[in-house]
Amino acid sequence: MSPYRTGYQARFRRGVLIVGALMLGVLVAVSVDVTTGPSGMSVARLWHILLHPETVSPAEAVIVWNVRLPYALMAILVGAALALSGCEMQTTLMNPLASPFTLGVSAAASFGAALAIVLGLGLPGLAQEYMVATNAFVFALASSCLLWLLASWRGLGVESLVLFGIALVFAFNALVALLQFVASQDTLQQLVFWTLGSLGRASWSKLAVLATLLLASLPFAMRRSWSLTALTLGEDRARSFGIDVGHLRLSSLVRVSLLAGVSVSFVGVIGFVGLVAPHIARLMIGEDHRFLLPVSALTGAFILSLASIASKVLISGVLIPVGIVTALVGIPFFVAIVFRVREGAA
Amino acid sequence: MSAHSPERRGSRLDVSKLSLRYGMVQVLHQVSLPSILPGTVVALLGPNAAGKSSLLRGIAGLSSTTGEVCLDGVPVGQAGFAERARKIAYVPQTLPAASRLCVFESVLSAAMAGAGPDGRELRVARAAEQVEATLHQLELMPLADRMLAQLSGGQRQRVGLAQALVRKPRVMLLDEPTSALDLYYQLRSLEQVVAETKRSGLISMIALHDINLALRYADTVVVLSNGCVRGVGCPRQVLSPALFAEVYGVSGRVVEFDGVPQAVITGVRAIRD
Questions:
Q1: Contact status, residue A206 vs residue A74, Cβ threshold 8 Å
Q2: DSSP 8-state symbol, A199
Q3: Chain A within 8 Å of B149 (Cβ-Cβ)?
Q4: Chain A residues within an 8 Å CB radius of B205
Q5: CATH assignment of A3-344?
Q6: Which of A62, B50, B181, B210 could join B185 via S-S bond, C-beta 3.0 to 4.6 A?
Q7: Residue B252 belongs to what domain range?
Q8: Least CA distance to A96: which residue of chain B?
């Protein structure tokens, strides 16, 4: 075997190794996440509660099954969903700064939620408890459609899309601020709490929805992994390989708006994971999307799981909304990425 | 290895009445070419904005045109975009982006892209063999594990050629494939294209600015000006002093120097409109 094939195979093995290591990391982080909380718990005790539920006190079982476990699992599912969305957006829109957060999908979802919370506006025939999530989802979907229309509009380069996305962020934030202004004391508190982004809203039914969606969309993304890889060589070149770039963008934006929209509607705005995790994955694995997609998702899961732990331990006894933690931790990462992009362009 | 054994896969290419407009600007006016036979190297010449790139993009199906492009008498539009791109490989003038892919992966993605999902793992292994053979053929093996982002423009342009060759097309459309290359690789790359064209019975259509490269390597030249064909045929006959004057606005003629035909340009005649 020639050294060149060996080089490629070494990269392949490295990819498998990184996927394995990240899976282990996520498992460890989730265990720590579940055992962290106001009432301490050892990992051994956790396994005992999980494996022998009949032998433990009802209080302990409730803490693990109804509070800690949904919270910890929501962190990894939302992290994976946002990171996978960010990765696909960055590739298909050919922009390193694209993510559900920076391109306004999250801001649109906030506005949808605000409409439901403050004005009680929503799709007819829905119970109040589902209205917030449904509204958030519908607006996230609509903003993605708007992005796609612009991406496929001839003459408007994908570079302009980020500018448009930033405009969307400001526009929706202004609309949310307007609703906050007219909101009553009670609904205002509810709205502010919603927009902060918290894993506390996790439930088993929400976990099931998000897990199903994630498991259903990952194979579709993986099927297009070669096309996504080829797209990193340039749009013209990808088209010359027979890739229908417009269709690729559309199908990936459908996945993105489903994943990001559902995530945001369940837990509120959690920024930066969708932007930062794919970049860390790219640094580890390169642009081969067969690995980049799963590694991005796992990295996102790992980061949000760590953020979830941090949100419990940063101020003891206080559960900080995880959206605040990711934004604070995300900013230094964001600055570092901007510098890297500038160096790459020079 | 498959790429080293002669593998004839040629088809006859017919282009008739191809027209293309971008908005209000008509860039190709009913361009028809005589049948191009397998194993032919066609050089596409003409001044800036003559329609060279547009003709290549039109044949590749990347720009919507009226008129007909046929392979062996069958219109290529019928089979769908992905199938057309399997038969007709277009190499854009822009270089492959400086991405975080190694050369091997980038050529592998070209071989895999646009293919169906069936039997994927088996196909990856086979495609990897073809990638290796193509990199051998183009003397790119020493760069196989380098990132595209670490390569020079010229090296990336040669990788771009590998990305087209690995797809084993019947027609290769190359838009200024030597624009970023030094003197040695201008000649070497075109020699490799000519060799592959003859060996596999392809058709290569190459848009060029350098008339000497066309004289050296092309079997046929097509001269375009303002979206119309101004001359087709044997390079030495088509490139007459009259054509230099009318199309390029220069005084020039083709002479033989040490057995190699050379264009000698003696001056600018008039400002072109």
A1: yes
A2: G
A3: yes
A4: none
A5: 1.10.3470.10
A6: B181
A7: 240-272
A8: B99
